[in-house]
Amino acid sequence: MKIISWNLNGIRAVKKKGLDESIEMMDADIICFQETKAHPEDVKSTIESIDGFHAYNYSAEKKGYSGTLLLSKSQPKDVIKGMGVNKHDNEGRVLTAEYTDFFLVTVYVPNSGRGLTRLDYRQLWDKAFSTYLKKLQMIKPVILCGDLNVAHEPIDLANPKSNFNKTAGYTEPEIDGFKRLQKLGFVDTFRYKHPDQIAYTYWNYMFNARARNVGWRIDYFLVSNVFLPRIEEAFTLPNIMGSDHCPVGIVVK
Description:
Blueprint: E1 2-7, H1 11-15, H2 19-26, E2 30-34, H3 40-47, E3 54-58, E4 68-72, E5 78-81, E6 94-98, E7 103-108, H4 119-137, E8 142-147, H5 160-163, H6 172-183, E9 186-188, H7 189-193, H8 209-212, E10 219-224, E11 231-236, E12 248-252
Parallel strand pairs: 1-2, 7-8
Antiparallel strand pairs: 1-12, 2-4, 3-4, 5-6, 6-7, 8-10, 9-10, 11-12
Helix pairs in contact: 4-6
């Protein structure tokens, strides 16, 4: 089974840049999208040309903002929108699909914002999300994927020293939030399979960053440690274009 995760930064924009062809090229069994930036009716019309998948969408209340989407060739046993916390569940950030032997959670973690204006909220959100994942793990193993909006280690961004505690995505509180997931037993599949490989998943649209490969690795697949033996491969797809993020994926046996 191949599972892909991709922050689209606007599903309608990527549709115009070859979304259908990219989906065909990726040849995945399940595809999780973040930052669709579209209301349900817009998502539906955008994906109606894509065959062979059951589709589950979770849009933000705010128009043109956030949002998650899951396409699955096999029908999940259940799909859960949000994490059951009202003050965090109006931005369409967490979408969970239950399968026979695992939960698949796709997430678009809040960005702490320019000037770190939303860092305090981000910390509250991280704690609530950890509590939600802990409850799921009591039932069955969890595959967690999406844009976690944090570079966990210096290897995960091009300029760690100049960004540390200054730029959203590389502050001590955000890194601590990632470590909290690790303490729950989650393992970063890409770093597990490729401990020393530099591979970014996000590049700023400005400054020709992608061509210069000045990027960040903020898109992940984390799995419950009991699930780790089933991970055959973890990878990035930097040649898939259309967004300022590239897809990431795993192969599960």
